[in-house]
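CHAIN AND CONFORMATION:
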Amino acid sequence: MNMDIQLYELTSLFSSVDIGDYISPLAFGMAVDKVADVRHAAIKALSGCYSKFNSENAQVQTEIFLDDCHRVFASSQDWKLRQVYINLCESIYKLHVDTPDQYALRFLGRLLLLKEDPVVNVRLSLGTFIYQNLVNNGKHENSLFLFLLNKFNLLEFYIGLSDDWRSQIDECLQILLVDRDRDVRASVGGVYQPRGTSLSSENLNDDSDSSIQNNTITLGDEQQN
């Protein structure tokens, strides 16, 4: 059995207090490991911890968890840990344990700050997650596309956000759309246009590349450009 599955399954067997005292600290320690596979296992385990805290309405454990996430990952000087924060936000999002605005209040503010991160791989991870998971800009009329959005709760999430959060997502994608790295631009579709905003093509002439090709996002030890 894989390590990530083992730790994740443990979160359903113990109380939120025990998880907060033992499993969560262990997972946070693993999340800062130099080995990518260990960090990957930690992300799944941490999302399980968060889900358990939520289901038991464990306010103290939840607040400690969020503070540690923001301090250890989102504010880290190590770009790989900022990337861990993005991947953790994605893992938690896919559990659908928060209302849209609750998720936004707890994670989205710190997440969107990474739109101007100095490291290409961080911006690429952010763009891919936001565009593929959180965004529905109302321009998709294809019935199959709308069916898939509804099936995976994507449409419900975006519509459920307050106007302020949707505007912040729009701003984030606008910035990433004119990013100096073309892979980052591609990660947000390359055609995204926020409501009522026209983008100049003059910023799209840079041919720089990120070290991740074909929009593949991993937790590997990619080199910073």
